[in-house]
Amino acid sequence: MDVKKRPIWQYVLIVIISLFLCYIPVLFIIGIMAFDHQEAKFKQLSNGSISVGNGDLLIERNVKVTYDYINKEVHIIGYLKNKTKKEIEDVSLSYELYDKKDNIIGTASAYIEFLPEGKTWKFVAVYSELNAKEVANIELNEVDYF
């Protein structure tokens, strides 16, 4: 039985086409996710609450900052409400932390995978660096969601 060997370029071509066909769906999914992602703008309302995006989310005005002396952490505690008629995914928010001289000393963030329509999430953003006790002020830095 006489078996013909293929040239090496044919094997290389088969590998390249296989990889290309495997990665097309992955790139498509990543493209869809990137399209839906929103790095939301926010604005302070007259009642002290913060409106996020096009009013999709609302951070209630009573955000509190506490210091945990046992664990030596700063906790930023607040409530974020989904005001849309759909579930929002991958909600993350971050606060910049400042010392008494208004120098940025770090960032605290919180994340929830799913926030159902009309529901409120009690978030806790934690900062646990060595200088946590120096935190004098916070400022909302970023809110992202899908």
Explain what the structure shows.
It is a single chain. The chain has 146 residues and is of the alpha+beta class. It has a single domain, classed as Sandwich (Immunoglobulin-like). The strands form 2 sheets. Strands 2, 3, 4, 5, 6 and 9 form a 6-stranded antiparallel beta sheet that branches. Strands 1-10-7-8 form a 4-stranded antiparallel beta sheet, with no helix packed on it. Strand 5 and strand 6 form a beta hairpin. The longest helix is centred in the N-terminal third of the chain and has 29 residues. The protein is elongated. The mean pLDDT is 86.
Shape: elongated
Instruction: Work out the number of β strands.
Output: 10
Q: Could you describe the largest sheet, including whether it forms a barrel?
A: 6 strands, antiparallel
| Low-confidence segments | none
Q: Compute the gyration radius: what is it?
A: 24 Å
Can you give the helix content as a percent range?
A: 10-25%
